[in-house]
Amino acid sequence: MADWTEPQDLREWAGRAFSLRPIAAGILLLALLAAELKFDWLERAAGAYLVSTNAERPESGAIWEKGRKTQIARTAIEKLATDREAFQRVARNAGSFNEVVDALAPGQGVMLSVEHFREIYRKLPEGVAAELISPFDLLRLLSEGRWSRTYIERSADGLMVYLLEPNNHVLRQAKVGAASLSALARGSAAAERTLEDLADFRNRIYPAERFFAALASLPEEVRRALVSQPERLLDVSGQISRVGVSDESVSGRVEVGFEIRSGSQRRVELVQAQDWAVWRLRSALEGRPTAAGSASSFPIQ
Q: Model-level pTM?
């Protein structure tokens, strides 16, 4: 039976310390320590236990919160990157200037090739194209061979366009204002509608025969000021059945809408006409006498 009394002298202390039981316990402890240093079994066992009980423990504390914020941030960044790639892809494949604008949020931009920019530029209404850059300036830049690509960036109040050299030096920069972008958007929205659906043309809609008869009675310079790109109307598929004339002037230009019928489908093609020429046209449509020098009395609000 073990002696549980306190040793009385040094010899008894030494006898108990160097007995078989303490020596065996010390050897076992040293073996466990050596195994831990070599195999890290204690950390592995603790880790396995924590993993097995992980689902049962509450997700709280600084570590959990930091991990949660990191995951949310990573998800948001991945979504932004995916959205940006999608916007870029849509903009690069756009068939019109308005599609490029719709694909970009304020602060976003896209790089287009020269050929792609030329393609969408040719589809712009004359007023917007003139605000952007003169076609003669484009021809000059093309002939010089320095223009390599175009960067378009959406801003809060319009659109910035940069014509670039191969080393990204800016050859020419221009801005399309919010009013012009709004006109482009209206033109896109009008594509699947009728003249009655557009408030600007109500009560000012004329049969196509009457409109073109009045147009034919005007001098060539007035007709060109009304329909500066008649080729666009020649390219449309279908028959022009009616024409609407707005009474609102924005920056000296008035919208004229051509309703095109193709089978049972109807759509509207918008053009920008100069306000003084629209006054001459409306006078001809309503049978009023016109005077070449009376453009300043144009009654549009």
A: 0.48
